[in-house]
Amino acid sequence: MRAHGYAATSAGAALTPLAYDLPRLEPHEVRIAVSHCGICYSDIDLIDNAFKRTPFPIVPGHEIVGHVAERGSAVKHLQVGQRVGVGPQRSACLQCACCETGHEQLCVDGSATAGGGAPGGFADTVQLDAAFAFALPDALASAMTAPLMCAGLTMYNALRKHTSAGMRVGMLGVGGLGHVGLQFAAKMGHEVTAFTLAPSLEDMALVQRLGARSVVDSSDPEALAALRSSLDVIISTVHGKVDFNPFISALRPNGKLCLVGNSPGQISVLGRLVLGQRAVVGVASGGRHDANQMLAFAAQHDIAAVGETLPMSAVNKALTLVRAQDVRFRMVLENEGA
Ligand SMILES: [Zn+2]
Ligand SMILES: [Zn+2]
Q1: Could you tell me the fold of the domain covering 2-150+286-334?
Q2: CA distance to 27, 30, 72, 87, 121, per residue, from 24 (Å)
Q3: Which of 7, 47, 143, 170 has the most CB atoms less than 10 A away?
């Protein structure tokens, strides 16, 4: 079958239309007619070859919603026509210790939806292991559920793993990840402090409507110092370079700084970490069980991304807006008529 997508052919290049043949459909695979695909910052890293391993030409996109167009003979849990979501992972071995304990995202034999050489969701069709296509609850609208498949899964998993009931949670950065994370955190019953750069009164009101109890200007040293030893967990969604030290000081003893963004940063170990007995942990996306639980939780609590949509054909305009951080909060591409 012929698929049509948008591909970068070299580092940083504008995307251009690309037609390609999908491989023969294996018994355990599905083909999905893509209706929506969110733009995650890691799509931009992939296009820019930020990690020096992008296989060009690359069709990015891993926050996918669509309908099952075709299923392999062994696929029983999805029907043709069913609405599904796909996140950053397209396959795993499903046999190793990580896979068997629901941590498929850590499988060393797993592969990425986009970036591992196979085309991703900036396309009309995507083909992958049906184990990584998740049925969507009816209550979730397609466009603003697409970002939940990566941003939502990551934030849900970070909160589930590293928080317990009624904690004081800091959300560092309120962008694509953070605005979803603070909704999940608030609906889980946490008291959320959002950290964002020089927020306007309008920004503060919006972030509070999404569930933050308070909003702190992350560039204000006095505001950060006033939070000393007060938060149980801080989740950093920041993509750029950060001095984490004032945020670690805002953690209680035994508190955790949880990193989900690809953020190079400064952390001083003695004192802040050792004497405060604090921890720094990383969270990489989530497993299949997490994805299903996240979707059910979002449906139950009316959680959706907040953002803008543009037609898939306007992908370069959309990427320019994302690069300029001119999107509040997530950009979603839409295949008209799909
Ligand atoms: Zn992502
Ligand atoms: Zn595995």
Answers
A1: Quinone Oxidoreductase; Chain A, domain 1 (3.90.180)
A2: 10, 11, 10, 22, 18
A3: 170
Shortest-distance ligand to the CA of residue 101: 2
152-282 has which CATH code? 3.40.50.720
Residue ranges per structural domain of the chain: 2-150+286-334, 152-282
pLDDT (tens digit, 9 = 90+) per residue, 305-321? 999 999 999 999 999 99
- At residue 155, what is the residue type? M
Quote the ligand 2 centre to 106 CA distance (angstroms).
Answer: 7
- Render pLDDT for 293-307 as a digit per residue (tens, 0 to 9): 999 999 999 999 999
Which residues fall inside 5 Å of ion ligand 2, going by CB?
Answer: 92-93, 96, 99, 107
Q: Could you list which residues have their CB under 5 Å from ion ligand 1?
A: 40, 42, 150
Structure tokens at 206: 């919006």
| Interval between CA 273 and ligand 1 midpoint (Å) | 29
Ligand number with the minimum distance to the CA of 262: 1
Distance from Cα 288 to the centre of ligand 2, integer Å? 12
